[in-house]
Amino acid sequence: MLIVITGFIFLSVAMVVSLALYPLLTKKGELQERLEKMMPEKQASTTFSEDKPWWRITIEDLGAKLPVAAKEQTKYTRMLVAAGFRKESLYLFLGSKLALALILPGIYIFTYALPKGVLMEPEPLLYTTGLAIAGFLLPSGWLMYKVNNRKTEIFHTLPDILDLLTVSVEAGLGIDAALNRACESPQFKGNPLAEELKIAAREIRAGKPRGDALRDMAERTDVEDVRAFVTMLVQTERFGTSLSLALRVHSDSLRTKRRQIAEERAAKTAIKILFPLILFIFPALMIILIGPAFFKLMDIFK
């Protein structure tokens, strides 16, 4: 156990020192910078990586060295895309898990355990292990929170965007022009679904088949209702049915589904409030009602 603690302390110190010295170790010489300025093609190819802050490059390097199974990488990549991040953020995410697993216990060790001289006692060892586990799991919990929030926002926005698409199609616009109008509407500015529609519209303008662009959008959002919407558009185009009627029916069904979910949550509220009512409100109410009578009875029987 002593060897494990010593190794953990060494890794924490090494990481803190590496983060502190990284800007100095990676600083380019004056001659190298002048040569790179004389080579515009090389400068252009490295502009994106040089714009990254040093701490991000360090964390991405840590994430790239972290042994993770291909299945786990695929799962994290899908979660990152569903949360609104790029696929290239995978190594940053993995590196942040490792960095927090080292930094959080390292802070506890160097600010409390070592100054107090209680590093080898059971309680500090338990805290150190718990902080390491919490630091490793914290990015995953944060990512799941972002994914759920984004999916909820997309689910609530989809019927409104469908209404705008319906009005645009009934006014004579094609589906591509209607998609452009929906994603550029001021009321949906900054909305994740509008951003995904904008990406799909750009892919369609670049020559990608409409069905493939919309399916990719559905995969990025990872929302079942968006998949159903894309399937409806593809089938409508394939069979030549009325697009405006299909959009209106689909929008009405989504609003009905959203209303049913709200009614279900409202029905659960009475059950959820029952436990705090019994545990907290009823005891206080009983004390207020019975307390004075109880003390009067105590005085009488004295």
From TrEMBL:
The keyword Ribosomal protein belongs to this UniProt entry's keyword annotation: no
TM helices/strands, residue ranges: 6-25, 90-113, 125-145, 273-295
InterPro entries in alphabetical order: T2SS_GspF_dom
Gene Ontology CC annotations of this record: plasma membrane
Chief place of localization: membrane
The entry's keywords: Cell membrane, Membrane, Transmembrane, Transmembrane helix
Signal peptide positions on this chain: none
Membrane topology label: Multi-pass membrane protein
Domain called Type II secretion system protein GspF: residue spans: 162-290
The keyword Transmembrane appears for this protein: yes
Name this protein carries in UniProt: Type II secretion system protein
Compartment annotation: Cell membrane
